[in-house]
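cron nightly-structures :: item 1 of 1
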Amino acid sequence: MVQLRGLVGLVQPQVESPRESWVLLEIADASLPLPEAQFWVDVDGVRSYRLDFAYPDRKVCVEYDGDDAHGSEEQRAHDEVRRAWLRAQGWIVIVVRRGDFTGAALDRWLGELRAALDPASAYSNRRW
């Protein structure tokens, strides 16, 4: 019950998959601010790109690439075009994959996120 009470505040109905929930839990466990789930980015006033998790005020997003939704060559090519556009608009894009929840891989993306959210970090002030 104690653990459940701590987790209830993390529930976000917009989260679309169990692995996205894992991403959110890892962010919370790292004591980082919680992002907005399923954030839309407009292109010329039209909702065009939905990000799994975003910190819109910092232009930082975290995307989970699961094998089911991002496994095909066509989908990977689409993801790269979308991410290139986001980077060109000044977004920092952090991609998390299935094997990125333990050890050095977990430390890598959480470190990237921590640096991107730190206002004093050169990484967070970088513009693509």
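cron nightly-structures :: done
Strands lie at 36-43, 46-55, 60-65, 92-97.
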